[in-house]
Amino acid sequence: MNQTQREFYAAVLAADLYDGVFVVPDSFRGELRQQVSLIEHAERKECPLEYVMLITITDERGLAQILERTARAENLEWATLTTAQASGEVAQVTDIFDPYRAETEGIVTVREPEHVVIGLRHAPPHTGFLHFHVPTTGANYHVHDRDRFAGRIRGMHLLTFNTPQGPEMIGFNKRFTYLPEDDAKRRLVHATPAEIMGYLGKF
Predict the structure, then answer these.
(1) 3-state class of 201 per DSSP?
(2) What is the DSSP letter of 124?
(3) What does the pLDDT read at residue 121?
(4) Domain total for the chain?
């Protein structure tokens, strides 16, 4: 990566100029991992959502709406914004913005089969995003680098998709992946690589 690319990357991070799922070229992935390393050495108070071991979703209306729309199995990706706060090792998702309003109010600006764009600069206050993956394939169960990169560095994000058993939801940030504790999806628990493989084995 040359100096111009580095400066551009730094400016994007510093100014929050990226909109939604900012596609990360392979050459940037090392930079993402460097950001993760910096987070690991940062004070927990500076990056509280990166250290949590449990996500709880207290917005029951929002959760029900998201799972219902996921079950519709639309052929285009969709997305919305979320608000979470950390208390110790627990992140509480207190608000899931209505995904239909996110479209009518111009927060979601592009919907495609494998891509969605959120206009973060025009959005209400938030700490993360939620998006839906279309295909019912193994690709759904992998959190891509470009998904981890999108949004603010301290964000907590959610991903929904469909399985043969019905709609599913997982959580992620720059460091970790969180799997549902049970079918209610209200609690997402930090998962080790072995636990993620066991989870994938269910499908």
Answers:
(1) coil
(2) P
(3) 67
(4) 1
Tokens of 47: 């990056």
- The closest alpha carbon to 58, from 78, 28, 87, 38, belongs to 87
User: 156, 142, 149: which is closest to 33 by C-alpha?
Assistant: 149
pLDDT tens, residue by residue, 113-124? 988 888 766 566
pTM of the model: 0.77
Question: For position 162, which CATH number holds?
Answer: 3.40.140
**Rounded mean pLDDT of the chain?**
79
Structural domain boundaries, residue 69: 3-200
User: Sign of dihedral through CA atoms 60, 61, 62, 65?
Assistant: positive
The continuous run of DSSP H or E covering 38 comes out as helix 29-41
Residue pair 44/154 in contact by the 8 Å Cβ criterion: no
Higher-pLDDT residue of 135 and 94 is 94
172 HSE (CA, 13 A, CB side): 22
